[in-house]
Structures are given as structure tokens and as C-alpha cells.
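Record format v2
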Amino acid sequence: MKLVIDESRCKGCNLCVLVCPYGIFQEGTELNARGIVVPVLDRPERCTNCRLQHLYGRVLCGLCHMICPDQAITWVEEKPFEPHRVEVEF
Amino acid sequence: MIAPDWLREDRLPHIYCTGCGNGSVINCTLAAVEEMGWKRDETAFISGIGCSSRAPGYILTDSLHTTHGRALAFATGVKMARPDFNVVVFTGDGDLAAIGGNHFIHACRRNVDMTVICMNNQIYGMTGGQGSPTTPTGAFSTTTPYGASEPAFDLAELAVAAGANYVARWTSYHVKELTKAITTGMQTPGLAFIEVRTQCPTNFGRHNKLRSIPDMIEYLRGNAMLRVKYDRLVEEGADIPEGTFTIGELVRRRRPAMGVKQ
Ligand SMILES: Cc1ncc(C[n+]2csc(CCOP(=O)(O)OP(=O)(O)O)c2C)c(N)n1
Ligand code: SF4
Ligand SMILES: [Mg+2]
């Protein structure tokens, strides 16, 4: 699963920035085509729900999805073999 | 998780301002509906007039967008004609407590089986920020330019006194707790009243030095106090800061109810 922000709905309120316990959402800096500064994702692979939803069979955390007043944040299934950024922590 | 096919996707993005709390309340309601396993053709969303009352327009079920303040009267009618329907009312503080005040207390007294969700932003949002019966003392609005001089209504306590079977209060920041409260309200026979303190950065925030969204959230979060803690402080005789409101479940009881599904 991966986290996506629907740019056609987001109004740039940054409530997700306020609630994500991992700080995945960061305030954006660039205007999009609708004139809105959409938050950017910082290493979204850290999201618990993306990693563990299938394993637990239920939604974990999900605060961003619930608080987003514009219904713009969801998770989508990844295509097989989608390129990933892998971070190795020593 | 928001019930996936209940949103009218073609209507989104909705008209609410950036950072308005009403959208989060829609999410919580749809998550509660998902948990209840209700069917779309057995559910009706009913509302009056106001920003909050536009919510049923974004939900793909039967809905009534009625005259200002009369949502509960229409909802009572729906429930009496079709007791098999699940009825949910979305309303605002102005809609429920000002022009619709009498409908509110009598619906609670009759204990009609429905769920009433009041998005209390402490202001008339849609019409440009006039003071409402829930505007806190001292707060500024276009009709209280020197600060409101009247005391405010406590809607949840009002519902308790008037006889609703389930009463809870949360804020639009407490999404998980709010979802749980709405679900419990939907399960309880009789009238369930859930007051949600929501942020209105555009009209309440702008007049009260809370223009930014984090400031508005902090205002809600900082003034909210769990009911248990509040009761304990009262018992101890400790000082309770000005502007504090209680959150949590205020009442759950089994008074006789009207229109309960058989
Ligand atoms: C009979 C009638 N009187 C007055 C109005 C004007 N009016 C429209 S919305 C509104 C206030 C709504 O306030 P509230 O219920 O708090 O909703 P909010 O916009 O704050 O969510 C008023 C007074 C109206 N539409 N109909
Ligand atoms: S005026 Fe206030 S209540 Fe209405 S949409 Fe804007 S922020 Fe929300
Ligand atoms: Mg209002």
C-alpha cells in the first residue's frame, strides 16, 4: 500500500502535517496547477498503515485519512515491482 | 476508514473553506456508518441551513436539505413515516440552538430514534460571522464587536437536561474518539446527540486572533477537558480555567424512545 494525496481535492490546510505521528507530511513550497500548496510526503514508506494493513487486516493509525477535511488522503495498492527507495539504517 | 462508496465524488471538492472542521466530521460519520454496516437505501441524512448543513449534499443517500432550523422537525417526520430508516441529522450551532432551539429540546424530550450531529463552530459561519447562542462570552464576531456579553449555551448539557438517550461531546480534532462516539450514538435507541466543536478559521478565527489553522486546533484542544477529570477537579474544588469545556460521553441511558426500529 502507499499513501497518496489527491491534488484535485486538497486545499492545503496542512492538518495532516499536524497529526501524523511520523511527520511524513511536510508543508509544501510549490503552488500546483490549482494554485494550492499541497503538502509533500517525506519518506512515506515509514507509514505504519502502508506497511502493516494487510498483515493485521485492518486500518492502523489512519489519522491523516480521518482528519483530512477534503477527503484527499487515501492509500492505494502498489503495482507489482514499483520502484522503492530503500533506506538502510545502521 | 471512510465508507468508500458513500461519498458523492462528483461533488468534491466541497465548498468548505481551507481547514474547516466540517469535512472531518463527515469523515467520522461515514466511518461510523461503515462500522454499523448500514445500507445506503435505508439511511437518510437530514440538515437545515448553514455550512455544516451542506454535509448531506456530499453523501450518496437520500437526504433532505430543509429550511433553517427545521432539520429535526423534518427528521421526526421521516422517522415517524419510515421507522425502518436510519436517520442522521447534521446541523450547526445557529441552526440547532438559535432558530431551531425549540425543535431541539422537544426532539430530545420525545427521544425520537435518530442521531443528531451538531457541528458547533460557535459562530454563524455561512452568513459571514454573526454571533450565535454558543459564541463564548468575550468572543468577537460581526454582531459582537466589543466581545459577546451574554453567556453561551452548553448544547450537550441542554440535551442531557431535555432527555436525550445518548449525549457526547468531542472536537473535530479528536477523530478516533468522535467516530467511536457517533457509532455508540447510532447503536443507542432513542435520540443520540453528539456535539462536535469544530474550527471555523474563516469567521470565528479571523475575529478572535485565531486565523491560522494550527491556532484554531490548539484553541479547541487546549480548552477541552475530559469529563472525568473535570468532575474530579470540581469535587476537589480546584480552579477550572475560563473557557474550558468537557469532552467525552455525558450520558447514556434507556428512557422510552419513539420510532425505534422493530
Ligand atoms: C429563516 C432563515 N433565517 C435566516 C437565514 C440566514 N442564515 C443562513 S445560514 C445562517 C446561520 C447558520 O449558522 P450555523 O447553523 O451555526 O451554521 P454554520 O454555517 O456555522 O455551520 C443564517 C442565519 C436563513 N437562511 N433562513
Ligand atoms: S465559514 Fe467557517 S464553517 Fe463555513 S466553510 Fe468556512 S470555515 Fe467552515
Ligand atoms: Mg455555526
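DSSP finds nine helices and eight strands in chain B.
The two ends of chain B are 29 Å apart (CA to CA).
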